[in-house]
Every structure is written in C-alpha cells, then in structure tokens.
Amino acid sequence: MRVGEHLLLRGPSGSGKSSLLALLSGLRRPSRGEVWLMGKSLHTLSPGALDAWRAAHLSLMPQRLHLVEGLSLRHNLELPELACGLRPDAARLQGLSERLGLGHLLGRRPDQLSVGQLQRAALARALMRRPRFLLLDEPSSSLDDAATRGLMDLVAEVVQEQGLSLLLSTHDSRVVQGMAHLPGLQSMNLSEPEAPCAG
C-alpha cells in the first residue's frame, strides 16, 4: 500500500485483522517473514528507531481508546508530541478540534465525553503528528448508527483533505457502507479465523 491508497480490511472476529494492523505498525514482530513499509523492514529496526519511524509516519487508532482519565481533552491531544519531546502545536490542536467538533470540549476530561466524542478525540490524537498512514482498528465497535455515519464521514473527509493512506479493519457493514464513496478504496476479506501470525 502506498501513500494515497486506501484499504478496507474485512472479516469476522478472530480472522487476524488486529494482528495485521499490529504488525504493520511495528507493535508486534513477525514470527517469520518480514514486514516492509515505505522501504523499511520494520523488524530490523531497533526499538528506539522503530518508535521514531512510527512517530514520523503512521498513527494507529486502536479498538480500546487510550485516553488518560485524569487529563483534559486538550492535554490528551498534546501527548503524541510531548512523547516525542516536541512542543505541542497549539494551532494544529485547535484546528483539528474544531474540524472534528471538539473545540468546545477541550477542557473536559474523558469521563465527561460521550462515546462518539471519545472516538472523535481518539481520531484527533491520531492525526496530531501528521501521519502519512492512518490505521483504524474497528472504529465503530461502541457506536450507534448515527455516530458511526458521522465518524466515517469525518474519516473520509480528513483522509482526502490531508492526503493520507487509510487502512481500516472492520466487521461492521455500516462502516463498509459508510466508506464506499472514498475514492481509490480497495477491500480485502479475511473470511476465515486463523491462528495469530506474530509471536
């Protein structure tokens, strides 16, 4: 997959979708073979080099949101840059927040946000470091129909506006339908459950 291309990874629970995203993001190492992305063999990088490469090129929005409960939404959105030793980009944070309908919520803690707002917050945080690849793992798992439609519309718009490559895993037909209009979207179906492919 190249920058600007998009892949919808479909399949039931246990078919290996999350394992594949973890391999592509370098969070898991393959038990055999190699994972290449943007000319890099990820398993040959040291942990520090892999962290730096990941921070520079991709963001993963996992199934389980990892927002820090004791911090405001603003401070949660600053974490990716602080973790890289960088000064948070206040203008980008404000712009993303407004774009995703979160601008008036920046002072709230995660427990003061709705499930849909939390998903949009996770998307905003994934976009803070200007990734070239955006990986979403079952983004609709806890959303109702209206929130799913809204989130998928936002994802499609942001991906096109920022020229990102999207890799999205789902077993949700609402997501498949909601992303069908994204230009250049390809689909891969992992139809049979399989053993984990990484050690």
Automatic annotation (TrEMBL):
Keyword Ubl conjugation: no
SUPFAM superfamilies for the chain: P-loop containing nucleoside triphosphate hydrolases (SSF52540)
UniProt xrefs under InterPro entries: AAA+_ATPase, ABC_transporter-like_ATP-bd, ABC_transporter-like_CS, ABC_transpr_LolD-like, P-loop_NTPase
Keywords, alphabetical: ATP-binding, Cell membrane, Membrane, Nucleotide-binding
Pfam families xref list: ABC_tran
GO molecular function annotation: ATP binding; ATP hydrolysis activity; transmembrane transporter activity
Record-linked Gene3D superfamilies: P-loop containing nucleotide triphosphate hydrolases
Domain ABC transporter: 1-198
SMART domains: AAA (SM00382)
Name of the protein in question: Putative ABC transport system ATP-binding protein
GO cellular component: plasma membrane
